[in-house]
Design brief:
The chain is an alpha+beta fold. The protein has seven helices and 15 strands. The strands form three sheets. Strands 1, 2, 3, 4, 5, 6 and 7 form a seven-stranded mixed β-sheet that branches. Strands 8-11-12-13-10 form a five-stranded antiparallel β-sheet, covered by helices on one side. Strands 9-14-15 form a three-stranded antiparallel β-sheet. The structure holds 8-OXO-2'-deoxyguanosine-5'-triphosphate. 8-OXO-2'-deoxyguanosine-5'-triphosphate binds next to strand 1, strand 4 and strand 6. It catalyses: 8-oxo-dGTP + H2O = 8-oxo-dGMP + diphosphate + H(+).
Length: 272
């Protein structure tokens, strides 16, 4: 059966979430859904979700953590694998580009609507959650890596060396997202060598797994930056990583607080 990968959002405003009624002409039209849509091959699900929310609702969004493990449901048109994330919208004047109606309500109030079946386990999960206290952290901190076939070993599990690369992938994206793109930094002659890395493996992953990496600043002093990486797969912890860095120019160690004060202040906003 055809697999359809979908990213959907639990969009939060106080203790309410947003539901949309699928408009005519779409599969399952008339039923209610969490806004979202298909993930393109190889795409980061958070990127897909931001695109879909912009298309459907006409708003930018901040995507937070996963709500629950991937929901799998079989329809006559294929097997839907739906990844669900908390989100906040930056614009509150919403468009109805894909829905006949949008409705805000608590999960309890909305439970009586005629939902697409794959959304039901999400509503059940939300009944246990205090939505008003969900933190949607800075999206720069989140990166999802989908395990490639070539990253697995003879036992079919991800080789341990890959986790160090995934740490780097999340780090370069983090620096770009906070305005300190590595490429641009190097053009100014500044480089940031890795002083040490540390990985504590908790559980194995395998081909196709979505590894969510949350990056935090564990320690920052005048010359040294320590980043932490919490890797989870479907909500289970798979690896805890750490990397230490310094910043140099022309072979000279830089004082981050004095010579890169803006970077220092920005990094201080992402404590572990
Ligand atoms: N967005 C969303 N999709 C859901 C939910 N529950 C559920 O079964 N689905 C299914 C319906 C669809 O088969 C699939 C989503 O694909 P889609 O057709 O909406 O994706 P799209 O917006 O990218 O595409 P399209 O309608 O423009 O063709 O996931 C839900 O709560 N939200």
């Amino acid at each position: 059966m055809k697999q359809i990968n979908v990213a959907a959002a639990v969009i939060i405003k106080d203790d309410q979430i947003l539901a949309g009624q699928r408009e005519g002409g779409r599969l399952g039209s008339g039923a209610w859904e969490l806004p979202g849509g298909k993930i393109q091959a190889g795409e980061d699900p958070r990127v897909s979700l931001q695109r879909e929310l912009a298309e459907e609702l006409g708003s930018n969004s901040i995507i937070g953590e996963r709500v629950l493990p991937t929901v799998v449901h079989q329809y006559p048109w294929g097997e839907v694998h739906m990844q669900v994330f908390y989100a906040r919208l930056t614009n509150h004047q919403l468009k109805t580009n894909a829905h006949t109606e949008l409705r805000w309500g608590t999960p309890n109030e909305l439970a009586e609507l005629n939902w697409l079946p794959a959304a039901r386990p999400v509503l059940a999960k939300l009944a246990e959650v205090d939505l008003a206290h969900i933190q949607i952290e800075n999206p720069a901190q989140f990166y999802t890596h989908q395990v490639e076939y070539y990253e697995t070993d003879r036992m079919g599990i991800s080789h341990h060396s890959n986790y160090i690369r995934w740490m780097e992938e999340s780090r370069t994206r983090f620096f770009a997202a906070i305005g300190w793109d590595y490429g641009q930094l190097e053009q100014t002659g500044i480089i940031s060598p890795v002083v040490s890395v540390n990985c504590r493996y908790k559980q194995s992953t395998t081909f196709g797994d979505q590894v969510d990496i949350k990056l935090t600043v564990k320690h920052l002093d005048r010359v040294k930056l320590t980043l932490g990486y919490e890797m989870t797969c479907e909500g289970s912890l798979v690896c805890l990583g750490e990397s230490e860095h310094c910043f140099t120019k022309d072979g000279r160690l830089l004082r981050i607080d004095r010579e890169l004060p803006e970077l220092y202040q920005t990094l201080a906003k992402f404590p572990a």
